[in-house]
From TrEMBL:
<dbReference type="InterPro" id="IPR045592">
    <property type="entry name" value="DUF6461"/>
</dbReference>
<dbReference type="Pfam" id="PF20062">
    <property type="entry name" value="DUF6461"/>
</dbReference>
<protein>
    <submittedName>
        <fullName>Uncharacterized protein</fullName>
    </submittedName>
</protein>
Length: 198
């Protein structure tokens, strides 16, 4: 069963080499997410991933927002909004935020924040090293999804898809690649906060 959950997240591997950021906020709408990121929904257009690429090119990060049951989400290519702790804390006030960051150099960070407080945060390559108010919140689930085996990372498992499977197993979050690549509110943002300006 958990292999099937990991398989449903396999689409993220298409974006791993250039980096991506995924942010989920419980109970938020797509336009709420844009406003929280400092964007104006009036500037956003509904586009597919291909259309957004043709419209904006690849020089600046493009934020795409939408909703799934109970959660709003942001998918950002090339950028690293998921590493902006101030932003994530602000988004989490009165609710929950799950953030998954993957940069082009392979750095990954998974974070759960509830009402401004980091509950658990870890690098999927080193999930044994966790921080937060309840760092072991997903410890048992890490084993269940195959992220950790015999106290260390299972070398045969893709750590990013296994980590996102935690969000499915523990929080009911499931985002299909077809949804991310299909029509979503899309807007180009400043390169500030993107790894591309380093």
């Amino acid at each position: 069963m958990h292999e099937e959950i990991r398989a449903r997240w396999a689409w993220v591997s298409r974006y791993a080499s250039l980096g991506f950021s995924l942010i989920f906020v419980k109970g938020r709408e797509a336009t709420d997410m844009l406003r929280a990121l400092g964007g104006d929904p009036a500037d956003a257009e509904v586009m597919t991933m291909l259309e957004a690429g043709a419209e904006f090119g690849a020089e600046l990060p493009v934020v795409r927002t939408g909703t799934i049951p109970r959660w709003g989400f942001v998918f950002e290519q090339f950028g690293r909004l998921g590493s902006d702790q101030d932003l994530i804390r602000e988004l989490s006030v009165g609710t929950q935020v799950v953030s998954m960051l993957r940069t082009a150099d392979g750095t990954s960070v998974f974070t759960l924040i509830e009402d401004g407080e980091v509950v658990t945060s870890f690098d999927p390559l080193m999930p044994m090293w966790r921080r937060g108010a309840d760092p072991d919140r997903f410890a048992e689930a890490m084993v269940q999804v195959g992220l950790v085996r015999d106290g260390s990372v299972d070398p045969e498992v893709d750590v990013v898809t296994a980590t996102l499977a935690l969000a499915t197993l523990e929080l009911g979050i499931m985002l299909d690649g077809a949804a991310v690549e299909g029509p979503l509110l899309s807007v180009e943002i400043s390169a500030e906060g993107s790894w591309m300006d380093d």
